[in-house]
Amino acid sequence: MRLTITPVPPFDFDLSATIFSDGDKQICKYENGRYWRVVRAHNKLMLVTLSSLGTVINPVLSVELESDEEISNEDKKTAEEIVCSLFNLTFDLTAFYDGVKDDKIMSMLTQKLRGLKSGATPTVFEALIDSIIEQQISLKVAQSIERNVIKTFGDTLEMDGTVYYAFPTPQKLALATVEQLRNCGLSSRKAEYIHDVSKSTVAGKLDLEHFKTYEDSEEIIKELCKVRGIGVWTAELTMLRGMNKLDAIPADDLGLRRHISHYYCNDRKISGDEARRIAEKWGKWKGLAGFYLIIARRVGVKI
Prior knowledge:
Radius of gyration: 19 Å
Strand order of the largest sheet: 1-5-4-3-2
Structural class: alpha+beta
Oligomer: single chain
Number of strands: 7
Order of helices and strands: EHEEEEHHHHHEEHHHHHHHH
Mean pLDDT: 97
Low-confidence stretches: none
Shape: globular
């Protein structure tokens, strides 16, 4: 099944998807102008493949849906909603560009990266689990562990001879033992945190999706930090990745601090507090501005 989506312009699909270039072909990947991953709609797995048919100013996305089950119109509608969330397609970037225009450096970056949108994971649960895994370890190591978790506990979909993996459901991770989680490369503590979060989600004690309705980001952080294993950094990263809360910025992240320092402090080592002070000039767009810095470094933007 195919459909087309018209994102709110400007939107540069290739630039926005480039962060997935290092992804696993069986999980989530961007390559040769195509992005694909498995999504879940009404307990049905579908392989979603995106490609661009338009331009930055007149963007159009081609979406191909494949499944080993019949795809209903309701499934199609849900898949379209997920795709829009994956790349924040309904968001108008002009508000962000206008909000940071007085910051010379960020204004220059937005001109060079025009159409770049940050998206979100299909569920807040996925963003939270990934954020827990990434606590206090290198991104490369974390990504390896994330792949292990997905390929150990995720449901599979086979299409044209290739097996694809969906992110594990809370139910699957709740049924796993701490030892099984540790075998994926997790520390004992992180395995316990993930197990506890999964059980609380299944039991209905933790409603992560409900946080999307909160307007006050500080309230979300306060509530998430009540959960064992979640601190401010993890909460901020989860908000940014899983809820499209673009005012959240994990300023204590070493990688992000390096990116901020590269463009604002001549690569001098800076503290989380200093990074937050710099980020204040971006107002409610702190998280999106941070994403622009990450991608700017990734694609080698010079100012």
